[in-house]
Amino acid sequence: LTSLVVWCVTRPCVCANLEVFGRYNITRFGFFAVCAGRPFLVCHILMQMNQILRLSKLLTTGIIQQNVTSKVCVTPLRFYSESPVKTDIADSKVEKLSKFGLYVAACLPKYVQKVEIGHVKELDILIHPDGIIPVISFLRNHQNAQFASLVDITAIDVPSRPFRFEVIYNLLSLRYNSRARVRTYTDELTPISSICDLYQAANWFEREVWDMYGVFFSDHPDLRRILTDYGFQGHPQRKDFPLSGFTEMRYDEELKRVVIEPVELAQEFRKFEFNSPWESFPKFRDSEKNTAKLADAQPAPKKELPAK
């Protein structure tokens, strides 16, 4: 059986010259055409020899002999890789991030106030406003961090806090495939340092935060609005900014130009405040206490049957 299989594979190699010359009729083009066709013949023969080597390797493993003994191949040929099995590295990555966060806190204890791993398994660092430049420079230039990409700068507004604005820097390390989130805080009057000297992308990001929230960045090369129009009043992403704004823009048919004028409302704002448990979580939690209970059903009186 082995010799038969080898002969079926080696037959094209033995008859390669005859098949190629007969198929393409190279002889009619002369001696130079025959010489030029030699590389093609060599490639054809090498391909067949490669099949012979692969077949001989399979014959030594015994896979073909096991399958030939049965009329139908029950188990297909499978080639398993001998490389180590890839394991889930999520837990080890989180452990490394947590250790690195503690390392950052130990190196910069003056500025780092809190280090934690978020629910998305990313490093979260809360810092003092004075530590923006030192901490971000450390994360960018340290050999074991290399957060060389600034993905975004954003902010949130919580008016109930003493420092109502929280500025968030999202950093990415392509070297270690990790993300870090640096958070700091400020108010309406206190500026924070710009990081345009560290990341060029911070220019427009800080302009957007200034336009939407009114957070002032000191040492910014060109701190002006980027999304709203010239002369816009207020900062739209603040929680105390009215929904309709302070001014409206429209085209005046008489003046034949665009005019900006104060907002005129046909009616006052209506506040829809209902005492519904679905709009207030404490009431919803205590809904069982506030819900009136129905009186327990009493059994119907038994009818006395007349005496016989």
From TrEMBL:
Record-linked InterPro entries: NADH_DH_suC, NADH_quin_OxRdtase_su_C/D-like, NADH_UbQ_OxRdtase_30kDa_su, NADH_UbQ_OxRdtase_CS
Q: Which Pfam families match?
A: Complex1_30kDa
Places the protein is found: Mitochondrion
Q: Which GO terms describe its cellular component?
A: membrane; mitochondrion
Its keywords, alphabetically, are: NAD, Translocase, Transport, Ubiquinone
Reaction(s) catalyzed by this protein?
Answer: a ubiquinone + NADH + 5 H(+)(in) = a ubiquinol + NAD(+) + 4 H(+)(out)
Does the entry feature the keyword Translocase, yes or no? Answer: yes
The record, for PROSITE patterns, names: COMPLEX1_30K
- What ranges does the record give for the region Disordered, renumbered to this chain? 289-308
Where is it predominantly found? mitochondrion
The record ties this protein, via PANTHER family, to: NADH DEHYDROGENASE [UBIQUINONE] IRON-SULFUR PROTEIN 3, MITOCHONDRIAL (PTHR10884:SF14), NADH DEHYDROGENASE UBIQUINONE IRON-SULFUR PROTEIN 3 (PTHR10884)
Q: What is this protein called?
A: NADH dehydrogenase [ubiquinone] iron-sulfur protein 3, mitochondrial
Q: Which organism is it from?
A: Schistocephalus solidus
Q: Which gene encodes it?
A: NDUS3
